[in-house]
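re: ur question from earlier - yeah i can do the single chain one, its not a big deal. heres the input i used so u can compare w yours
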Amino acid sequence: MAAKKTSQAAPAGYAEAMTEIESILSQLDSSSIDVDVLAAKVERASFLITWCNERITAAQLTVDTLVADIEFEESDFDEDEDE
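and the output i got, formated as tokens:
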């Protein structure tokens, strides 16, 4: 049986996603959660975790690019001073 794909609303930002994940985890810790609700909560948490990981990866790439640019500019500046 294939997993059904549902459209998930993206959170407004990383902090909101983390807050929602924490809320879902708290609900999952409850022994009174309905099985049907459980499946939907796990699906939402999975979506949010993937969304957060994508944001972290994008941020890391941006930081790496900026650091590389700074290092290149510094090495270029150092070469100009040596002349």
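Residues 14-82 form one domain. not sure if urs matches, ping me
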